[in-house]
Amino acid sequence: MEKNAGREKGASTLSILIVLIVAGFLFSIAFKLYPAYWDYYLIDSVLTDVIQDQDELKKTNSTMKRDLQRKFRINAVKLPQQDSIVFERERGVVRFNLNYEVRVPMFYNVDALVKFEKKYEAIAP
C-alpha cells in the first residue's frame, strides 16, 4: 500500500492566501493608474480625430486650440500642464506634440510617475 494514499493534494490555505495578496496588490496598482491611462486614451482619440479632419486642419492654431479645449471639456479631460500639446504648422504640415507627466500617489510616500509622449502629423489642405 502507498504511503500517501489517504492524503489529498491541492493548494494549501497559505498558498491561496499568498495568491490573493499578490492579486490584490496588482489590482490596487491597476486601479490607481487607470484614470491616468484613460485620460491619455481620450486625449489620443481627440488628437487622432483632429488630424483626420481636413476642415479642422484649415483653422488657425488659436482656433484649433480653442476647439481642442472644448473637446477635452466635453470628454471631462484636464491636461496636467497648459503646454502639454504644442502646435507647429510648417509648409502645409500640421504637427501636434503631446508630452506630459502625471504623478499618481500609490501608497504612503510612494508615487508613480507616468509619462506620455506622442507625435501627430497631418498634411493641411
How are the SSEs placed, and which strands pair?
Elements (H helix, E strand, L loop, with lengths): L12 H40 L1 H4 L3 H14 L10 E6 L2 E15 L2 E14 L2
Antiparallel strand pairs: 1-2, 2-3
Q: What's the Cα radius of gyration?
A: 24 Å
What's the end-to-end separation, in Å? 86 Å
Main beta sheet strand tally, sense and closure: 3 strands, antiparallel
Supply the number of structural domains: 1
Morphology = elongated
The strand order across the widest sheet is 1-2-3
Q: State the order of secondary-structure elements, H for helix, E for strand.
A: HHHEEE
Helical fraction: 40-55%
Number of helices: 3
Low-confidence stretches: none
